[in-house]
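Standup notes
- DV: blocked on the single-chain target, sequence here:
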Amino acid sequence: MPSEKKTFNILVTGSNGQLGSEIKELSSNYDYNFFFTDRTNLDITSKDDIKSSCEKNSINVIINCAAYTAVDKAETDIENADLVNRKAVKKLALVSQELNIKLIHISTDYVFDGKNFKPYCEEYQTNPQGIYGKTKLDGENEMININPKNSIIIRTSWVYSFYGNNFVKTMLRLGKEKESLGVIFDQVGTPTYAKDLAITILDIIPQIQNSKLSIYNYSNEGVLSWYDFAKEIMKMAKLDCKINPIETFQYPTPAKRPHFSLLNKSKIKSTFNIEIPYWKDGLDDCLKRLGERK
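- DV (later): unblocked, structure below
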């Protein structure tokens, strides 16, 4: 007899954010049952709420896209950042462990200090430089300590998408309003097109099998600065706005940004046998969807 096909009942938290929205749009392409939630219909800071929702819907996979991502605001709004980025992750991990649920949690390049000179591997020393990075790392550690079976953390960087507010949309808006813009050239990394990350997550779900929690890096391929990114956005959208390179000190922010946050993606590629799109291909697709690719 053929083995019974396992049905994945997937709870997606933070489903109105950039990544959650992309998963929602892609969901019809997958033979999974999805339950999309946000803060209005699921309190992820309540273990009882999470557990009853999971039991009611026979959830066997959670994709945690919920996060406190206001990097600068987090410097003063420490309690709320900790609530979402650490405490909620702990509750999700506890329920996942109790109910044998696969938990896929999204983390960030901000867990590193950005002082490296070669791409960060998953096992490199973490050293967050601000509250956002610290609370995200605290959330990772809660999950590692609880160690729900078949669960993973995916660290990503410079996320943008068709949805929400992001660097690409800001550049498009400013590119139409201004003749010139100063954009930072001494912070280097790679953008992540949320749609590409969403596809990867949905594709690898059946393959995730690990007794000890695993961490993976994911961003698009390539390396660039924010300045390079802005130049390419203007070029693809045919906007006549001059981009000038500026240094980080010329654009002070409450939270310190990593100068170098390039992620080594070889582990996720070899483990799940996936190919990761080049950053320009992701940008091209996003601008087409936004109706801005000229």
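- Follow-up: The mean pLDDT is 96.
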